Amino acid sequence: MHALVFNLALLWLAGLLLASVGLVARRGTLAERILALDTLVLVLIGLLAMFALDRREGYYMDAALVLALVAFVATLAAARYYDEGRPS
C-alpha cells in the first residue's frame, strides 16, 4: 500500500507541475506570473523531497532546501519589483 500511495503522490505532483507550467506560460498579469512561478517552485520542492525519499539520499533534500531559499528571496525581489515598479 505504501508504494501505491507514493506513486499516486508522484503522479499528483507531476500533474500539478504541468498545470503550473501552463499557468506560467499563459499571458497574465505580472502578479499572476509571480504566484504561478512560486507555485511551480513549491511543486518542484515537493518532487525533490519525494525523489529523496525514493532514492534514500540526502542530496536531493539539500537541493530542495537550497531551491526553497532561493525561491523565497526571488519571490521577495519580484514582489518588491511589482510594488515599486521598474527601478530608474
Automatic annotation (TrEMBL):
The chain crosses the membrane at residues 34-53, 60-82. Signal peptide: none annotated. Keywords: Cell membrane, Membrane, Transmembrane, Transmembrane helix, Transport. It is a multi-pass membrane protein. The keyword Nuclease does not apply. GO terms for molecular function: sodium:proton antiporter activity. It is found in: Cell membrane. Its main location: membrane. InterPro entries: MrpF/PhaF-like (IPR007208). GO terms for cellular component: plasma membrane. It comes from the Bacteria. Belongs to the CPA3 antiporters (TC 2.A.63) subunit F family. This is Na(+) H(+) antiporter subunit F. The lineage of its organism: Bacteria, Bacillati, Actinomycetota, Thermoleophilia, Solirubrobacterales.
